[in-house]
Design a protein that fits this description.
cell membrane, elongated, LapA_dom, alpha+beta, DUF1049 domain-containing protein, transmembrane
Length: 82
């Protein structure tokens, strides 16, 4: 049941982001360290959301990897003590 709620919430969030992006279609100037570029705001919003999701996903994967390593280490210590 928890997965269904997570899926529903994710779909609602995607819908909100999509509506917000479609409303904002003006051209904006994006300043980089090495120059400027003009992009439609919809691309800036969607790109920011995707980069943020990627960053959160990578941090989550790192945390899972660390927890799995700690679990293996703790399991090995339990086997040695038995």
């Amino acid at each position: 049941m928890k997965r269904q709620w997570n899926l529903i919430l994710a779909l609602i969030l995607v819908l909100i982001i999509a509506v917000f992006s479609v409303i904002n279609v003006d051209i904006v100037t994006v300043n980089y360290l090495f120059g400027k570029a003009e992009w439609p705001l919809i691309l800036v919003i969607i790109g920011s959301v995707l980069l943020g999701a990627l960053l959160v996903g990578l941090i989550g994967m790192m945390k899972i990897y660390q927890l799995q390593r700690a679990l293996k280490k703790a399991g090995g210590e339990i086997d040695q003590n038995s």
